[in-house]
């Protein structure tokens, strides 16, 4: 019998930030790779080999109903410095380590690179799946390697290149979806900072605090985020519901003729990224309610659970918004949030 903790008909309400009151048929937590291997090779897992999910803190998931399969959750919370040079430190972090605790750990040791990613909910394992990003930084810029176990219990080490990182994307969401469970992520942190402050009002907020340090950048990021984003403890949400669409420049220019204020961020010579929140706001959805779900009043990209919303209600709202954006601008917006059936 595996050493993992196994529970049946387990409530997931405290394991997803949308606050969906759903249950998992089986819920398993493991403390290390050996626990996980035994679990994957056990009779408990066998019937669910095609019907399981791995979750972190559930801050990017939308459960549409009770989950009839098996949910895996890592409790691997170890952190080890693997190597140190004059300029850099390599840190291996367990998949169950809370992401923001890792950022705090690095900032407090004057190690740099993660400070712009402060206060993003979730755990380290998922950060490497999602390629989390904020304020001009992406976690893939820090990742040295990702260790993961396949369903036969064999370990594989992925270099950053092998993870195929893109905007909120990786091989773990694409070709290898459902095939690997991340156990450790190794980050390369710098001893000398390279500040990234030219995003939104970050520079102004940092300068308010005086000197630019890891601590002041982290504080500024936290302050801005808390002023803009709803706290999931108060109002269930999963952050940005949609990805920002990337469109052809030509299409952008046509739209700009009609909507001169449409913002964009260049991606390459051919394409630009358009803020999905702006598109949604133009369609009049900001602050609108749909049953027990709503579009947040301060940030149109965030859908919220006003209390008692079902996953279907939130999905329904999202589909209506996407259809309106498509009709108005001819742009397809797709969810960043993972729907769990
Ligand atoms: C208020 C709020 C603000 C947010 N702001 C941002 C932001 O600024 N930038 C940003 O990028 N994201 C943001 N998010 C989204 C979210 O925090 C990230 O996507 C985060 O990485 C999800 O982590 P998690 O541990 O909750 O993963 P979950 O939501 O539990 O899972 C996410 C995905 O990762 C997979 N997964 C999780 N752990 C593992 C593992 N060990 N092995 C394999 N697969 C795994 C899951 O199957 C799922 O597909 C925000 C969310 C909220 C609620």
Explain what the structure shows.
- The chain is α+β, with helices and mostly antiparallel strands.
- It has 3 domains: 5-74, 2-Layer Sandwich (Uridine Diphospho-n-acetylenolpyruvylglucosamine Reductase, domain 2), CATH 3.30.43.10; 79-228, Uridine Diphospho-n-acetylenolpyruvylglucosamine Reductase, domain 3, CATH 3.30.465; 236-340, Uridine Diphospho-n-acetylenolpyruvylglucosamine Reductase, domain 1.
- It has 8 helices and 20 strands.
- The protein has helices spanning 33-40, 99-108, 124-130, 202-208, 214-228, 249-258, 276-282, 311-329; strands at residues 5-11, 23-30, 52-55, 61-63, 67-74, 79-84, 88-94, 133-134, 137-138, 143-150, 155-159, 180-190, 236-240, 246-248, 265-266, 271-273, 289-290, 293-295, 302-305, 338-340.
- The strands form 6 sheets. The protein has a 5-stranded antiparallel β-sheet. It has a 4-stranded mixed β-sheet with strand order 1-2-5-3.
- It starts with a strand and ends with a strand.
- The mean pLDDT is 96.
């Amino acid at each position: 019998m595996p050493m993992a903790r196994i529970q049946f008909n387990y409530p997931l309400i405290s394991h997803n930030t949308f606050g969906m009151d759903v249950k998992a048929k089986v819920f398993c937590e493991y403390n290390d790779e050996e626990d996980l291997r035994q679990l994957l090779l056990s009779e408990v897992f066998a019937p669910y080999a095609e019907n399981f999910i791995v979750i972190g803190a559930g801050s990017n998931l939308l459960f549409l109903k009770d989950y009839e399969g098996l949910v895996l959750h890592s409790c691997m919370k170890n952190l080890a410095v693997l190597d140190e040079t004059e300029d850099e430190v390599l840190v291996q972090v367990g998949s169950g380590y809370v992401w923001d605790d890792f950022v705090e750990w690095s900032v407090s040791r004057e190690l740099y690179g993660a400070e712009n990613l402060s206060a993003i909910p979730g755990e380290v394992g998922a950060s490497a799946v999602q390629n989390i990003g904020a304020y001009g930084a992406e976690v893939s810029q820090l990742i040295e390697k990702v260790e993961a176990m396949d369903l036969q219990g064999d370990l594989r080490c992925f270099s950053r290149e092998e993870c195929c990182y893109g905007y909120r994307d990786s091989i773990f969401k694409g070709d290898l979806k459902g095939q690997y469970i991340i156990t450790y992520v190794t980050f390369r942190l710098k001893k000398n900072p390279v500040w990234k402050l030219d995003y939104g009002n970050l520079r102004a907020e940092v300068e308010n605090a005086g000197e630019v340090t890891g601590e002041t950048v982290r504080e500024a990021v936290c302050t801005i985020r808390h002023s803009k984003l709803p706290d999931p403890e108060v109002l269930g949400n999963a952050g940005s519901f949609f990805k920002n669409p990337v469109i052809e420049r030509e299409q952008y220019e046509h739209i700009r003729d009609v909507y001169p204020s449409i913002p964009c961020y260049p991606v390459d010579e051919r394409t630009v990224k358009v803020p999905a929140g702006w598109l949604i706001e133009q369609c009049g959805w900001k602050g609108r309610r749909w049953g027990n779900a709503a579009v947040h009043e301060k940030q149109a990209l965030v859908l919220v659970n006003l209390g008692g919303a079902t996953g279907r209600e939130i999905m329904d709202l999202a589909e209506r918004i996407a259809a309106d954006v498509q009709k108005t601008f001819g742009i397809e917006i797709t969810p960043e949030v993972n729907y769990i059936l």
